[in-house]
Fold each of these.
Amino acid sequence: MTLTTEQPGEAPGRTAATGQGRWGGVLRELLRTRRAMVGILLILALVLMAWIGPLLSPWEMGERDFTAFRSGPSPEHWFGTDNTGRDVFTLTMVGLQKSIIIGLLVAVLSTAVAAVVGAFAGYFLGLTDKALMWVTDLALVLPSFLILAILYPSLKDSGWIMFVLLLAAFMWMVTAKMVRGMTISLKEREYVLAAKYMGVPAWRIIFRHIIPNMASLLIVDATINVSSAIITETSLSYFGFGVQPPDVSLGSLIALGAPQALAFWWMFAFCTGLLVVLVLAVNLIGDGLRDALDPQAKRRS
Amino acid sequence: MFLVRRLVNYMVLIFLASSFAYLLAATTLQPRAYFEQRQPPPSQEAIEAQLNDLNLNDEVPLAQRYGVWVSGVVQGDFGQTIKDQSVNEEMSRKAGVTLRLITVGTVLGCAVGISIGAYAAVRQYKRFDRYSTWAAFIVLSVPTVVIAVSLQVGAVWINDLTGKQLLQYGGEYTAGLDAGFWGTLLDRLQHALLPTLTLTISLFAAFARYQRNMMLDVLGADYVRTAMAKGLTRRRALFKHALRTALIPTITYFTFTFGVLLAGTTFTEKIYGWHGMGAWVVDSIVQNDVNSVAAVTCFMAVCVMAASFLSDILYAWLDPRVRVS
């Protein structure tokens, strides 16, 4: 999976990209896959919608329309209104924003932690490896949903950033194990050995040589983590352990809409639909990226 | 020998995980608040006495409470719930519900997912492959919560449409039903259908995708060609050589996803109103019930460990190289 870095010319179609570097080639490869294109377009559309939508809507976030409770979609309220007369369109857009931000932050954070933990464990092996992998196993055994649910209510006051940190703290383990495995094979490579015998300190080798050489794995994993972060966030918020009012996320909106989904479908359908589209788009990009970065997997697409 | 060492390691991890959960729950949850907001409000002394009885008093040092808890757990006693019932009894009642749901859901989900994935790989780029890939992709993007809720909404809709209680979507059985053995069995099955379906759907997608990719890696391999060249039928070659090899990474994957599956079960139980471990833990957190939370964590850790132990065994069964070394 990581061999791409050393043999940039090997992949068919990538030779044309010489001069623009590897990432230019990857980008072109990505744009050629229809699946990834669809994903990127969907994400762009959703991001635009989430940030421009509230500006277009005549209703503010906290504003209530006391003349219309639970009224269906109309020119006045594009997605209808909820129990207390809030505009569902505005709510959904703000929730979408939050879900996108949380997903991205959690993915970046957890992938970074995974890269550092895995690389250190794999590079030093021995005692460091034992200790770090042990912590990883422990974190894998702990039911993360439960720990998050216990911890978060007591940290509610610190806002949703704390929630992001907690989510990230329980998502790095699997990636860390993969990174460790890769590091063990990477550390025998000539360029790593050369750096080592030149007296480059270990942490520098890890950050300058080992982690950058796993970039493709890390990027693919970060993308996958975005979607699982969004899913976890939604589930936790559904049970009231996640994003707390007055903040809204897609999860808390689904929780509000689900019990009344049949009588007042607009309170359930829009947020659920957008959530599915969002995660689907992220997954499509992740899949496309994996194919673009991994020449061996090309035939899978 | 290897398995014994593994087992000891697992036990230590389980113990640490439960301890961690206990300490965390004991420091962040507030059982005192639970008693204080009771109607009518009990006297201060009564609260103290209750808290002391249940080993939940936050004025007793944490180390001491933890000590009491550990000495109980070592003897197999998880203490009392906040309503002064035995956690052990509650657990033995609820664990069965959860285990049944998980086992059926997992077996069905894995079986369906693996067969669809494997078949899709064999028919790569054909119609079946394309449809199943898209279906898996879409299902993968839907959180278990949303699957459960949507099925429920769908069930209500179908019931309204047919005018009958065709699909049950709440509880584990109809309360006070007296319909003999078959009637009860049918009733239980009716109630179990949707929750099991939820788990199966959410599992199938992940396994179908993973199995397809693994299978594609294997299909082009020399040994599969050799197997066919030496005269095996295509079907036999695929089953005995390709599928078997392709299952190995899938088993590792299963171990990793088991935690996610447990969380999914929690949501499913809670949404369908089953009184299992998952629903219990959500309620215990809301009720500040420290001992129950620790007990459920222990249960879940045991499940994760059992899953990874199982996958070790399956691994050894599928991959002869492991057995030799």
Amino acid sequence: MTISTISARRRRISGELVAAVVIFVVIYSLLLAVAPFERNLYSFSNFVVLMMPLAVAVIGTSTVLITGGFDLSVAGTLGLSNVLATVLTSAYPDMGVPITIGILGLGLVVGLFNGVLIVLLGLQSIAVTLASYICMTGVALILLPAPGGSVPIEFTSMFKLSVGGFPAALGALIVLCLLWAYLSRTRFGTTLFSIGSDRQAAVISGMLVRATEVGAYAFAGVMYAIAGLFLTAVTASGDPNAGFPFLLTSFAAVALGLVSFRGGKGSAIGAVFGAGSLIALPKLLFGLRIQDFWSGAILGITILLALSLPLLSHVAKRRRRRPAAAAVTDTRSRKDLADVE
Amino acid sequence: MSNNTLPTDQTGTTILPDPRQESVPRRIGAFFAQPVVIVWIILVLMFPLSRIVSPNFPSLGQLESTLILGLFLVVVAFGQGFVILTGGFDLSLPQTIALGAFLTGYLANTGWPVMGAIVAATIGCALIGLINGLLVAHAKFPPFIVTLATGSILGSVLLGVSRGTPAQPSPAALSSLFSGKESFLGVPTPIWALVIFALIAYLIQMRSTIGRRTFAVGNSEIASRVAGVPVSSTLIIVYTIAGISSGLAGIMLLGYSSGADLNIGASWLLPSITAVVVGGSAIRGGAGSYAGTIGGALLLTVLGIDISAAGFSEGVKQILYGVIILIALIAARLGKDTGAARI
């Protein structure tokens, strides 16, 4: 259902997105095949709610990655959002909506802060976002020194609503994907991809490079805040280090979504499916009765296989059209020269 | 802290592109505007400033514990920094540290001589680096995600293999060498290890052929290839060296803490990157010096000691860390050719 809704609205579907969807469909079908208890609407609904924090976070991660930047603040914003939601809702149980809006605002501010430092001061994205991640973990630790706290049920149920058996979270995810699909076709989106593939050319052709780049970090910050809220709904408690696992899993999900790590290519929607694959994989191993400490190995191998997919399609293309190879090396060298600055 | 960096910034802003044609004061200004020099100045100033947090500081004991505790960060940051110099990342560092510690402990406890266990563990870690290097150089996969994947696989295999005995006690010889209780010529043995390692690492990165090739590859792979630099083999060697240095860190940590579990490396990934960044290296490769990285590693260590002595909570400690990184980044940025527009 998700697939058809999204694909119907996109004019052009990239090979990467198709591959990301195929990986997810294969893993999820295998899961359904080996685990009979997953074959019902209730389990599906649970699955969607469980994957929401990662799925929303990777929309932000991949947006920044498309511009050629790395955003490690995902772990900080997500964790701080989780802690703030826990601390504030247990103090003011009736203020669910204002608290939600406030936390989204915080994500926006952190994203803007990152973006301004990176773009206006010309600092390196991975270093700035690493620093802001560490700072936010510090703030989270001051607010809530140890994991715990209790989140009122009114707040968690806000994110776990279900309509006729279908989780409202799925609707939210589809809305976010559609929003991204729309954004990627606006001028903002075009500039986003141009920055990632050839920054100099984007500047020369008069695009609003700086504003767009700041915008990408701000957008990502809001996504991380939303992800933190969904995480709070799933765990119903706060943990100052809740974000840490997302630091690496969000990039793993992005890799499974076949978003390019060199910028300029990929789709956040593919990354969402990557997140789905990442959540489904341990469940599949559980269904196969494989001991859980092997899940890291299977995950690593799956990532390496996903990485080699574009390589395979490249080889196939080259076999069909020999001169294509020359064109590819040409764009690579141009990108390399642009990187030197 | 910002007060200390400010004057250098102001002198830094006056530098013109070619300092050779400048007057002596300007050349001095250019010298002090180098990220490496800034880091070392801040590091040296940290010791008298430590008095703010404790009346017992600065002391010889403080310097000693900074160097002993700093050893591990100096070692892991070398491997990480060498990889970053090529424009990559090594995210498999925590698991490689664990492999080094686990293999040494495991082999020594099954009756291997300690030296043999150390060599075998180092070779094991070199192999992990070699695999990373092959995947990056030949399959052309992005280093960030390759090392994330290999780290994930290695961590999982270690968990699977070590079932039942995940924690390994350290062989006695190793403990006495790295716990800081033994001295040689009045200086604790870990400090000797620090000096020897730093010297060798400095020579590899800054003075050897492979070091020079690493700078070239980090600046531009295409240009290096055109100039005849063997890019693939350089990358493979760099990742292998990174694997070895992580392994050595694991072996040292095993000795220092008299034992190791599989999580021993987990807390070193972010500090390894932080030390490199604070040391003034470009995170996208091509520029940086190991002297800066050593300064960054020791600065982070002395900060950690001061913050612990001041009795700050973990949260304040983290915030201070983050702020220091930002200050170092901004100082390095302002110190560099100011005004040269980034496109």
